[in-house]
Specification:
Layout: H1 2-27, H2 32-35, H3 37-51, H4 59-83, H5 90-99, H6 103-122, H7 124-131, H8 141-167, H9 187-203, H10 214-225, H11 229-235, H12 240-248
């Protein structure tokens, strides 16, 4: 049953990513892969739920699907607003420069299909719960939902603070150091990781719940070691303001600023 759910999710998501690739090629803007990142989870989980699921919709599976859909919708709207009128993101422009003539097929493989594979992996809590949901929802599951809610709020508030900061022309080229950004250089990433731990805990009571651990661990690896903090901070590595900010502020876990960081 688990294999049926994963197969349905993967096939549905493959078709979705191929459609995105075609749109990205026509627009010469692979940034749409970022905007579609959240919705890709909804597509994968919907495919697993409707095409590969057991037919009977368990409250645990439905709750997980609803929470992931809520996160996905918020993230997609935020990224679409942020991207409007800006053109292709600097990361993808750099990829175009590096890849040269191979940009089309490498974009398909390394942007769209790779992202699709990552989505299927991170969606494991929902997919294994669809296949085998486990016991009815109980009071212990409230902790998982609460953890998810705190993470989502942390991510949403910090994203909003950054968006408002960047909209002010006086802040062009400057680093945000107030709000939640006073306590972490990447509070949105911290919120992202936290909410996926909540998703994991909600899936844990199921018979395949331990497999769901791959989701928060993959999120942490990507944020801390691959495409999150390292890639973003490389852009500001020669900025004196950022160097001062980094010396006073935790990279990921929120904490009090060191040596009187700016308020």
């Amino acid at each position: 049953m688990v294999s049926d759910v994963y197969s349905a999710a993967a096939l549905t998501l493959l078709l979705f990513m191929l459609l995105l690739f075609a749109i990205g090629q026509a627009a010469r803007d692979n940034s749409i892969a970022d905007i579609a990142y959240g919705p890709a989870f909804v597509v994968a989980c919907w495919g697993g739920l409707t095409l590969g699921g057991p037919g009977e919709l368990h409250p645990r599976a439905l709750l997980l699907f609803a929470l992931v859909a809520l996160w996905a919708a918020r993230l997609a709207v935020h990224l679409a607003i942020r991207h409007h009128g800006r053109g292709e993101d600097f990361r993808y422009r750099e990829f175009r420069r590096q890849w040269g003539r191979t940009v089309v097929w490498r974009g398909l493989l390394q942007v769209y299909l790779l992202q699709g594979a990552i989505v299927v992996v991170i969606a494991t809590p929902v997919l294994v719960t669809i296949a085998a949901p486990g016991p009815p929802l109980g009071y212990a599951d409230l902790l998982a939902v609460l953890l998810f809610a705190v993470g989502l709020l942390f991510e949403a508030i910090s994203d909003r603070q950054l968006l408002i900061f960047k909209k002010n022309p006086a802040n062009r080229g400057r680093i945000i150091t107030h709000g939640l950004w006073r306590y972490s250089r990447h509070p949105n990433y911290f919120g992202e990781a936290l909410l996926w731990w909540g998703v994991f805990l909600l899936a844990l009571p199921g018979p395949h719940g331990l497999y769901a651990l791959i989701a928060p661990l993959t999120i942490l690896f990507l944020l801390l070691k691959v495409s999150g903090i390292p890639m973003l901070e490389k852009k500001y590595q020669d900025d004196p303001e950022f160097q001062a900010y980094r010396a006073k502020t935790n990279a990921f876990f929120p904490g009090l600023p060191r040596d009187g960081a700016t308020r």
